[in-house]
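Problem 12. The chain below contains 80 residues. Write out its predicted structure in C-alpha cell notation.
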Amino acid sequence: MKPDKPSFFSRIAIACGSFFRILGNADFAGKVRALRDTAQLREGSPPVPPASAAAALLEAAPDGALQLLGLLQREARFVD
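Solution.
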C-alpha cells in the first residue's frame, strides 16, 4: 500500500527538517545517500556522466556581434 502524498506545506517542512538533520548528522546523511543511490539503480537509468565544459563551447561566427546589434536595432531595443 502506497502512503498518501503529503501536501505542499508538509513537503516544505519535511525538506527543511531533512536539510538540517543531514547537516548535523553524518550517519543520517550517509543513509540518505545510500537511499538515493539505490533509488537510481532501481529506476534502471544509468548515471549520466558529466559533459565536459570544453565540448559545450561553440565557436562564434566572426560577424555574430554585428548580427546581435542589428537584431536589437530592428526591435528598437538598442538606441545609438
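Discussion. The first helix runs from residue 8 to 24. Students who got a different answer should revisit the alignment rule from Section 12.3.
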